[in-house]
């Protein structure tokens, strides 16, 4: 068996046996979530796309998306938190700073080095809110990072900052207060995935040396990357939908209503169709397929919310308990509706919701 398949099997076992029983707990309990992340590191599951050269297992895109779906199916909080670090692994590995790769990548699977990401500010139009000024030996960073998930888990994060010429520099910087240079906010009070500790940060003339720079991207990079990733981002919503379907399946096994089995069949058939459409849409990520990929992403978002709602409906009043998985999954669907959202994704989502209106 190849290493990537072994890693996926181990991840599935870990999720089923060690995470699923704690999914409600780690949604709100910070120390329980820390223990699960530590354990994931103990199993070397925190850098699945890491190239063989730095320790592997260099998981293929296809297997990694299955891993993402299964993680989101088991615990949205764990999926959302650890995906930031897994993205940092892939981004550092894809950069051109060999020294940074040698320093970070070998220690990123077991959690010795944990790195978040904070570059959604590059999506915003108008004057950049996070800027970098080139100076001798590095960059001076000033501005605001509105979203960084993983405070208290990740001592550092990969920041994206706009350069004066329109390019963006990506560098590893501290995710802690640095007197008079970095101020991290209190963790946000969020309706979902609060234990993943999302914060914002303000930078004031913070110097980052060239050694910590992962790469420089041309102007418009994030818009291009968002365009390529339109359908890829839908895998979290697909995992969330699978979680909702799991609850409906459990209820269909317990309650004597045939319509529950019918509803389950329909949801399972739609899930299979959505997975097929997502994989088809991803195969050709160019301008000509953008409308199709936007449709697929909006479908995944809409389906996640509908499956979560089906989980609630089939669980009756019990779904209202803060300890019930159905309401947690519903809240998680909220996050997947807006994460990595662009105006085009927002429009496609609203169009899909409106198309279902009326009788
Ligand atoms: C719980 C949570 C945790 C997150 N954690 C992270 C993280 O760890 N790292 C990270 O990088 N991101 C993170 N994000 C950010 C996430 O990816 C963003 O939600 C997403 O990028 C949308 O950005 P925004 O919500 O800031 O919305 P906005 O700033 O409103 O931007 C959304 C889009 O609308 C466009 N837009 C907005 N206003 C205008 C206007 N007036 N004219 C034209 N276009 C406009 C922007 O250019 C952008 O494309 C997190 C988000 C959430 C909700």
Characterise this structure:
- This protein has helices spanning 3-19, 23-28, 30-42, 61-74, 76-94, 98-104, 221-228, 234-254, 258-283, 290-315, 325-338, 343-355; strands at residues 115-118, 130-135, 138-149, 156-162, 168-174, 182-184, 198-209, 213-217.
- By secondary structure, the protein is α+β, with helices and mostly antiparallel strands.
- A hairpin with a 2-residue loop joins strand 2 and strand 3.
- The chain contains twelve helices and eight strands.
- The structure holds flavin-adenine dinucleotide.
Question: Which key terms come to mind for this protein?
Answer:
single chain, about 350 residues, alpha+beta, four-stranded mixed β-sheet, four-stranded antiparallel β-sheet, about 15% strand, binds flavin-adenine dinucleotide
Topology:
Elements (H helix, E strand, L loop, with lengths): L2 H17 L3 H6 L1 H13 L18 H14 L1 H19 L3 H7 L10 E4 L11 E6 L2 E12 L6 E7 L5 E7 L7 E3 L13 E12 L3 E5 L3 H8 L5 H21 L3 H26 L6 H26 L9 H14 L4 H13 L4
Parallel strand pairs: 1-4
Antiparallel strand pairs: 2-3, 3-7, 4-5, 5-8, 6-7
What is the helix content?
40-55%
Strand order of the largest sheet: 1-4-5-8
Shape: globular
Structural class by helix and strand composition: alpha+beta
- SSE string: HHHHHHEEEEEEEEHHHHHH
Number of contiguous helices: 12
What hetero molecules are in the model?
Answer: flavin-adenine dinucleotide
Q: Report the β-strand fraction as a percent range.
A: 15-25%
């Amino acid at each position: 068996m190849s290493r990537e398949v072994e890693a996926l099997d181990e991840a599935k076992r870990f999720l089923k046996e060690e995470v699923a029983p704690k999914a409600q707990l780690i949604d709100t309990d910070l120390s329980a979530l820390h223990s699960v992340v530590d354990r994931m590191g103990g199993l070397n599951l925190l850098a699945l796309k890491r190239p063989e050269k730095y320790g592997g297992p260099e998981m293929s895109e296809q297997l990694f998306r299955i891993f993402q779906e299964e993680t989101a199916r088991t615990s949205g909080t764990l999926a959302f938190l650890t995906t930031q670090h897994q993205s940092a692994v892939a981004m550092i590995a894809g950069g051109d700073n060999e020294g940074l790769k040698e320093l970070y990548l070998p220690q990123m699977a077991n959690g010795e080095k944990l790195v978040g990401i904070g570059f959604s500010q590059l999506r915003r139009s108008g004057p950049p809110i996070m800027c970098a000024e080139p100076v001798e030996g590095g960059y001076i960073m000033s501005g605001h990072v509105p979203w960084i998930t993983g405070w208290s888990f990740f001592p550092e994060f990969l920041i994206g900052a706009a350069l004066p010429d329109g390019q963006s520099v990506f560098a590893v910087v501290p995710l802690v207060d640095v007197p008079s240079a970095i101020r991290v906010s209190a963790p946000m009070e969020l309706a979902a995935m609060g234990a993943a500790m999302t914060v914002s940060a303000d930078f004031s003339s913070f110097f980052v040396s060239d050694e910590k720079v992962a790469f420089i991207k041309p102007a418009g990079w994030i818009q291009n990357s968002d365009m390529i990733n339109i359908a890829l981002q839908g895998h979290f919503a697909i995992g969330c939908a699978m979680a909702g379907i799991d609850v409906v399946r459990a209820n269909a096994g317990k309650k004597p209503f045939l319509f529950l089995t019918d509803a389950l069949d329909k949801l399972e058939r739609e899930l299979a169709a959505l997975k097929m459409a997502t994989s088809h849409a991803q195969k050709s990520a160019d301008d000509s397929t953008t409308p199709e990929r936007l449709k697929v992403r909006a479908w995944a978002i809409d389906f996640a919310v509908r499956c979560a709602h089906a989980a609630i409906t089939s669980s009756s009043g019990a779904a209202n308990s803060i300890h019930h998985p159905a309401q947690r999954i519903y809240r998680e669907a909220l996050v997947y509706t807006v994460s990595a959202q662009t105006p085009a994704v927002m429009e496609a989502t609203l169009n899909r919701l409106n198309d279902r209106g009326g009788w």
